[in-house]
Specification:
Structural class: mainly alpha
Number of domains: 2
Helix content: over 70%
Largest sheet: 2 strands, antiparallel
Shape: rod-shaped
Number of helices: 3
Number of strands: 2
Order of helices and strands: HEEHH
Length: 178
C-alpha cells in the first residue's frame, strides 16, 4: 500500500474512532436520560453521568436540576449527534471517492492486460514475418546456407584432388613424350 494510502487509512481510522465515541456518548446520554425520566416519574433521585478525560463520573441528583441545565444537556446531545452525522456523511463521501478510484484503476488494469495481449500477438506476427522475410531474401540473393557451404567445400576438395591427379598424370605423360 502506498504511503498516501496508508496515511488516508490512518486518518479514516482516527475519524471513525471519533465518530464511534460521539455515537456511544449520544446513545449513553439518551439511555441515561430515559432512565432519569422513569426515575422522575417515580419521584426518585436521578443519575448524572459525566465523562472526563480521566474517566466517567456518576452522581445522584435529588431533582434540584434546573430546566435550563436539562435544555443545555439536550442541546449538547443534539450537537454531538449532528457532529456524528456530519462525520458519517464525510466517511460515506470518502468511501464513494475510494470506490470510484478503485473502479478506475481496475479499468486501467484491464486495458493494460488487453494491450499486453494485443502486443504479444503483434510481436509473434512480426517475428514470423521476419523469419519469412529472412528466408525469402536468402533465396532471392542466393545466399548460401550452412549445408550448401559445406557441400561446396567437400565438392571443391574432391575436385581439387581429382584435378591434382589429372595434372600429375598429364605432367608424367608430357615428360614421356617430350
Amino acid at each position: 500500500m502506498s504511503k498516501q494510502g496508508s496515511e488516508a487509512l490512518i486518518e479514516m481510522i482516527k475519524f471513525a474512532s471519533r465518530v464511534a465515541a460521539n455515537i456511544a456518548r449520544v446513545i449513553a446520554d439518551s439511555n441515561i436520560e430515559a432512565l432519569n425520566q422513569i426515575l422522575r416519574t417515580l419521584g426518585l433521585a436521578t443519575i448524572k453521568v459525566r465523562s472526563t478525560r480521566l474517566g466517567v463520573s456518576i452522581s445522584v441528583d435529588d431533582g434540584t436540576d434546573t430546566l435550563d441545565a436539562r435544555i443545555a444537556k439536550i442541546d449538547t446531545a443534539r450537537q454531538s449527534l449532528s457532529e456524528a452525522l456530519a462525520a458519517m456523511d464525510e466517511l460515506k463521501e470518502r468511501a464513494e471517492e475510494h470506490k470510484h478510484e478503485l473502479a478506475f484503476l481496475t479499468q486501467q488494469v484491464e486495458r493494460a492486460e488487453i494491450d499486453k495481449a494485443n502486443l504479444s500477438g503483434e510481436l509473434k506476427t512480426l517475428k514470423d514475418m521476419a523469419a519469412l522475410d529472412t528466408d525469402a531474401v536468402r533465396k532471392v540473393l542466393r545466399v548460401p546456407t550452412q549445408v550448401s557451404i559445406w557441400t561446396e567445400r567437400v565438392l571443391s576438395f574432391f575436385l581439387g584432388v581429382a584435378a591434382s591427379v589429372v595434372a600429375s598424370f598429364l605432367y608424367d605423360l608430357s615428360k614421356r613424350f617430350f
